[in-house]
Design a protein that fits this description.
Blueprint (H helix, E strand, L loop, with lengths): L1 E9 L3 H11 L4 H9 L5 H18 L8 E18 L5 E16 L5
């Protein structure tokens, strides 16, 4: 059985989210939640919310929370907001604010 969640348009760059996601990818989801709560990275807050959502989905689906593991933990790039900052002599300094999508799939190894 599987439980899935997709969090879209997270206002944190994918690179920063991937640094935190790589840290928890091999853990069990309940242990990963405990580790993320004490991680000092700002991106950990977004992953905590997504992980809480998928654990709630798994509980509603009737999965055993002690025997589940990550099947997928993907951080994808979303759209970029194009912004600019005023430069000297009337020039424009463009930059992009990047966003991300988080997809988490949990599996307990059983067939549906």
């Amino acid at each position: 059985m599987e439980a899935t969640t997709i969090q879209r348009y997270i206002h944190t760059t994918p690179r920063k989210l991937r640094l935190v996601a790589d840290m928890i990818r091999q853990m069990t989801p309940t242990r990963a939640l405990d580790v993320l709560r004490v991680t000092p990275k700002y991106a950990a807050k977004d992953l905590v919310k997504a992980l809480q959502t998928v654990l709630a989905n798994a509980k509603v689906a009737g999965m055993d929370l002690d025997n589940i593991s990550f099947k997928k933990l993907e951080i994808d790039e979303s759209m970029k907001m194009r912004r600019f900052r005023a430069g000297t002599r009337g020039r424009v300094k463009p930059f992009k604010r990047r966003m991300a999508h988080i997809r988490i799939v949990l599996s307990d190894g059983r067939k549906k």
